[in-house]
Structure formats: structure tokens, C-alpha cells
């Protein structure tokens, strides 16, 4: 019997396959251990520890960060290690929970599928199977309507959760909620009756022609969506409208204003300093003074370029991005195009006459010697 079992085991699991499976298993374990070492956390750490370590290393090694340790190769190693560990955690959760049943997050269909006696037919009361059967119109319009429904449902769920939590913590609040619910039902009935009464009165007034003298009579209603951008859904449009009414300004707009003001101020200072010097070419003293000015203003240009980097990361449109300032280019523009201090003509003539007088005196002295 034992001989038969051993032969059967050899037939099912050959020696080469067993060694190959064991080698792959150990190589996978070593790769996982190396991933833990790459992220700088102990082996077999939980998912939250790995996530926090990954965030810290991203801040340290990301090429776009201004960290002195920024390294693209090291960042790629950290990212690969983190993704491998995430796959490992997902597989472990699936193995432990066994897919969490048919409606779980990690459910996988079995090989054998039970066929029902009758073929499944879609419910007749649902016009669409996507988006929970909500909305009407084109798929894009139904997608927008479904987003509005989800947002309203989420707000309702949050409010109901807070109410239930308060009622559980305070029994007196629960009694008050019951009384308010009864009162609310009564108010709804009263309000429904009032709405019907108001609707009847409106219809009577319309039939008598009392609304014909209104300014908007016979005209279509204004559209509820934005006319400028039809691709923005209603919820986003309303959120932007609320932010604008409350005085909110996006960060990239304030940065754009600061960059323009700083650049204009820098150029004004350069042109103002240029007015204190003479025409090109500059004297040795003026040239040395101009070089000192550009060196001092280079620190201010670095600060402006840092703001430009932040602005380029935040601006939503590519054509609105800005280029860095170049202090050499700005100083040359001010030097050659800016106004300069004019030297008086009288002083220049006096200097020329004095130079010619000195040259003539030297010439006379030399001729008198050689005679």
C-alpha cells in the first residue's frame, strides 16, 4: 500500500516540479523581504505601516520634490516595492476571508456555474440596467443625473447617521425625535393640502388671464446649467458658484498675481538704477556697480522662480504655465533699452581741449629736444 502511494505521488508530483515550486516559493518570499527592507520597515509589518513609510520615502526621493535626496532611480525602486507589497496584502486578505461570499470585494466565480431552470430576464420596471436604472436621455446625461442622485443620497445618509447616533447616546432625544416625526407627518399632510390649494388658485388665475401682463410671459425658462461650459455638471457648477460668492480664490490665481507684481517691481528697479549711469559702453566703475546690482537681485529672482515652479504644478491649463526669469536677460534689457544719464556737452568739450593742449605741449617739448 505504501509503495502504491509513493508511486502515485511520484506520478502526480514529479521531482523537478516539486523543486521548481519550492524555488519559486522561496524566491517570492525573498522578494517580499527585500521589499520590506527597501521601504525601511520590519518584515511582516502591517499595511498601514508600509503605507506611511512609502509616503515618507516619496517625499524624500521624488524627482519633482525639492529635497536634496531626490533620486529617480531610488524612487522607482521604492514604488515597485510598495506595489508588490500591496499585491501581497490583497492576496492575503483574499485567502483569509475566502472571497467574503458571493457579494464580497474579492469574490471569484467558481468553476461550476449552476444554471437556473429558466433564463434570467431583466425586471420590466427598470428601463436601464446601468446607473441603478435612474435618469433618462443619453448615457452622458444619465451619468450626470446619477451623480446628482448619489450626492443627495450621501448627504441624506450622513444626516441620518448623525441623527441615529445622537438618539442612541441620549434616550430623551429619541423621544423628542418620535414626537417630531409625528409632527412632521402632520406638517406634510397640511403642506400637501396647501400646495394643492395654491396650485388650484394659480390655475384659476391663469385661466382668467391675470398673468398675461408679466415680463416673462410666453418666454422659456432660463437653463439651470451653465451656458459657458455645457460639459460641467450641475453639482460642480453650483459648488463653483458658491465658492465665488464667498470670495474664494484658487491658489494658482493668487500665485499668478504675486509673480506678475514681483516681476514688474524687479524690472522697474533695474530701469531706475540704469538712469543713474551713463551711456553704453559703461566705465569701469559703472560696470562694476552694475555687476553688483545683478548679483544682489539674483536672490530675488530665485524666489520668483520658486513661485513659478509651484504655480506650474497648480495651474489647470498647460498654455498658462510660465517660464523662469533670467537675471542676465533682464539686466541686459534694462542696460541697452533703458534711459541713461546724459553727460553735459560743455564738460566733454573742456576735457577734449585739455587733452589736445597736453598733446601739443608734449609735441613741442620733443621737437625742442631733437633740434
TrEMBL record:
PROSITE patterns: DNAJ_2. InterPro entries: DnaJ_C_subfamily_28, DnaJ_domain, DnaJ_homolog_subfam-C_membr-28, J_dom_sf. Pfam families: DJC28_CD (PF09350), DnaJ (PF00226). It comes from the Eukaryota. Residues 34-104 form the J domain. PANTHER family: DNAJ HOMOLOG SUBFAMILY C MEMBER 28 (PTHR39158:SF1), OS08G0560600 PROTEIN (PTHR39158). This is J domain-containing protein.
Amino acid at each position: 500500500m505504501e509503495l502504491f502511494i509513493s508511486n502515485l505521488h511520484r506520478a502526480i508530483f514529479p521531482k523537478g516540479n516539486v523543486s521548481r515550486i519550492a524555488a519559486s516559493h522561496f524566491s517570492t518570499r525573498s522578494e517580499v523581504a527585500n521589499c520590506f527592507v527597501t521601504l525601511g520597515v520590519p518584515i511582516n509589518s502591517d499595511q498601514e505601516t508600509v503605507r506611511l513609510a512609502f509616503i515618507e520615502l516619496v517625499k524624500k526621493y521624488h524627482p519633482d520634490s525639492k529635497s536634496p535626496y531626490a533620486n529617480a532611480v531610488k524612487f522607482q525602486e521604492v514604488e515597485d516595492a510598495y506595489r508588490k507589497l500591496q499585491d501581497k496584502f490583497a492576496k492575503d486578505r483574499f485567502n483569509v476571508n475566502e472571497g467574503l461570499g458571493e457579494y464580497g470585494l474579492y469574490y471569484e466565480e467558481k468553476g461550476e456555474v449552476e444554471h437556473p431552470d429558466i433564463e434570467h430576464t431583466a425586471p420590466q420596471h427598470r428601463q436601464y440596467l446601468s446607473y441603478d436604472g435612474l435618469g433618462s436621455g443619453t448615457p452622458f446625461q444619465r451619468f450626470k443625473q446619477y451623480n446628482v442622485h448619489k450626492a443627495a443620497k450621501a448627504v441624506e445618509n450622513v444626516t441620518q447617521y448623525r441623527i441615529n447616533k445622537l438618539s442612541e447616546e441620549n434616550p430623551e432625544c429619541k423621544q423628542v425625535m418620535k414626537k417630531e416625526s409625528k409632527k412632521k407627518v402632520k406638517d406634510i399632510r397640511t403642506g400637501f393640502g396647501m400646495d394643492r390649494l395654491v396650485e388650484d388658485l394659480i390655475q384659476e388665475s391663469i385661466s382668467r388671464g391675470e398673468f398675461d401682463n408679466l415680463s416673462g410671459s410666453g418666454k422659456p425658462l432660463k437653463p439651470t446649467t451653465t451656458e459657458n461650459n455645457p460639459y460641467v455638471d450641475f453639482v460642480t457648477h453650483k459648488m463653483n458658484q458658491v465658492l465665488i460668492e464667498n470670495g474664494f480664490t484658487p491658489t494658482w490665481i493668487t500665485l499668478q498675481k504675486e509673480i506678475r507684481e514681483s516681476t514688474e517691481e524687479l524690472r522697474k528697479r533695474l530701469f531706475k538704477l540704469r538712469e543713474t549711469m551713463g551711456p553704453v559702453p559703461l566705465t569701469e566703475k559703472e560696470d562694476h556697480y552694475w555687476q553688483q546690482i545683478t548679483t544682489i537681485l539674483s536672490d530675488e529672482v530665485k524666489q520668483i522662480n520658486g513661485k513659478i515652479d509651484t504655480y506650474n504644478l497648480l495651474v489647470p491649463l498647460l498654455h498658462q504655465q510660465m517660464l523662469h526669469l533670467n537675471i542676465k536677460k533682464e539686466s541686459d534689457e534694462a542696460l541697452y533699452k533703458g534711459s541713461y544719464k546724459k553727460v553735459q556737452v560743455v564738460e566733454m568739450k573742456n576735457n577734449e581741449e585739455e587733452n589736445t593742449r597736453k598733446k601739443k605741449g608734449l609735441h613741442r617739448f620733443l621737437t625742442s629736444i631733437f633740434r
